[in-house]
Amino acid sequence: MNPVTLREMRERFRTLRTPIVMSLFVTVFGGIVWLSYTGSRQATSYIFGRAVAPSVVTASAGRLIFQILLLSILTAVVFVVPAQAAPSIVGEKERQTFKLLQVSQMSALQIVLGKVTAAIAYLALLVITTLPLFAIPFVMGGATVADVVRGMVVIAVTGFTVAAFSVWRSSRARSTQSAVVGSYLLVAVLVIGSAVAIGVEGTVVDGPESVTVYTGIVPQDDGRELISVWFNPYLALVDSTTNVLEYQQNPLGDGAYGMFKRILLKRQGVAFNSYRGGFEGEVFFDRGGFDGGVFIGDEFGPGFNNADSSIVRKRGDVWLGYVVLMLGIAGLALWATVRMVRVPARSERTIGKRRKGRAHAPS
User: In the predicted model, is pLDDT for residue 124 greater than 60?
Assistant: First the structure.
């Protein structure tokens, strides 16, 4: 194991704080699961009574729990990783131990990777402790093993990328405070900046000529690619764990994914219509006349055939592109950090040790 990672993991994991934080972390997310379950069951019972089959209610509640749990974990990663990674290199400089790392037998890449790994290892342990909670939506029929795996891949890549550019910011900062602030600003650009760009691109840039109206479930336009979605971790997470073009009986509507699913539908030419305006998920059947038509179902109405060639996936998965893009950004951040963390050549370090040994050798 990388010596830097091993040292920092020992320092963090061997304290009394670690089991306390782990217990609180699991308690908080367990509370989120419990509130999601009780809230969804009560809402469904209040609105529909016994008009909906219990199996449908259970699956819908399971999906809501799964969605809220994933979104909460991603939010925790986005907020916690910068605080763990930002002080990594600048903290060594403030303690005047950075030069000791530079003259060690490790390369600059090993030092940087050690810092990044140590920054995400602690949070990875916390995330692992929440994995048993996913058994609840899985048993309820709200998620599959593949959904959990894809969601965790997006979360892991997001955490690695945030840690990479936080360590890069740490290598350029002069104080821990500026490193932490700069890291959170970069996270804000990634999350909030991409959300603002999506709003601008989906409303201002995308003019009224792209309005989708359905005539017998055939869209009149092909949608358009929204470049900004490739940078948003929340959209990538939603895309990795749900199929927006698949009809599901869901008494609770879109749950926690509603807003994100409408944006993803927009890319497929299925999300916008002139009947209500704005992002819509329902299929619109044009009946003619003054009223214009009727909306069927939540996403697609009962009886809608997902295999119908009239509604096809026009664009690829967002989450795959997001993973590739974020890994590329993380690679650039690591490369820039390695250039900042310069170490003497291995031959120079070896020669220095030999000279020191000869100076202390008995005559």
Answer: yes
d(CA 343, CA 106): 9
Is residue 272 one of the residues assigned to a domain?
Answer: yes
Q: What is the pTM of this model?
A: 0.79
- Per-residue confidence (pLDDT) for residue 216, from 0 to 100: 45
Q: Is the pLDDT of residue 12 over 90?
A: no
Residue 277 vs residue 195, higher pLDDT: 195
Lowest mean pLDDT among 17-31, 153-167, 202-216, 299-313: 299-313
Residues 49 and 125 in one domain: yes
Provide the 10 A C-beta neighbour count for residue 72: 17
How many residues would you count in the chain? 363
> Are 51 and 81 in the same domain?
yes
7 and 91 co-located in one domain: yes
- Helix runs in 131-280, H state only: 135-139, 145-172, 176-188, 194-200, 233-241, 258-267
Token pair 């990795």: residue: 240
Q: Is residue 325, in this structure, part of any structural domain at all?
A: yes
Q: What is the pLDDT of residue 343?
A: 76
Between CA 329 and CA 155 the distance in angstroms is: 15
Exposure class string for 170-194: b at 16+ Cβ within 10 A, else e: bbebeebeebbebbbebbeebbebb
Using the predicted structure, report yes or no on whether residue 301 has a pLDDT greater than 60.
no
- Residue 277 token pair: 């305006």
Query: What is 36-102 written as a DSSP string?
Result: HHHHHHHHHHHHHTTSS-HHHHHHHHHHHHHHHHHHHHHHHHHHHHHHHHTHHHHHHHHTT-HHHHH
Q: How many Cβ atoms sit within 10 Å of the Cβ of residue 317? A: 15
**Domain around 280:** 208-318
CB atoms within 10 A of CB 332: 13
